[in-house]
Amino acid sequence: MRREQSLISGLSSLVSKSYKMFLLDIDFAPMRPEIGLLFWTVLIFGILVFLLAKYGLGPISRGLKARGDAIDEALSSADTARAEMANLRAENEELLVQAREERTQMLRDAKEMKEQIIEDAKKRADDEYRKKVASAMEEISNRKMEMLIDVKNQSGKMALSIAEKVIRKELKGESEQVNFVNKLIEEINI
Description:
The chain is mainly α. It is 92% helix and 0% strand. The protein has three helices and no strands. The chain has helices at residues 2-24, 35-170, 174-189. The radius of gyration is 70 Å and the shape is rod-shaped.
């Protein structure tokens, strides 16, 4: 530890002596420019600037101009694309509105068509019902007439059968029957 303290104190004394020497030596300059050195420095710098201007700055400026033109063109194409996108959005919105209107119209037409079909079906069913009812009524009427005719025929047959039996009973002889038949024939001919 003492050793470190002595080393630190030695270094600090050396630094303080160097600093004092630097302050006392004001004429200290690491480089002293002279006329010849200054001439050659300016000449070489001028030649370097001339060569850079002739061969280096032209391509650099053309490259920068081309890059600037490319950036301007990209910006203008981006603006054009943005405008086209806005137009496409507007067209898409318009197409969506048209599609919605067409869908609404199609639904309305389908509903009207459905109602018309239902109405036609009801009308056909009603007509068919009326035809069947009329046909049934006519069938009933025909059956009724057939039954009436059949009842009349049967009652006529029964009446004839009864009349025949009554007449046979009253007309016991064959001569009476023949006279009665002749009388009936005369009445029919008249």
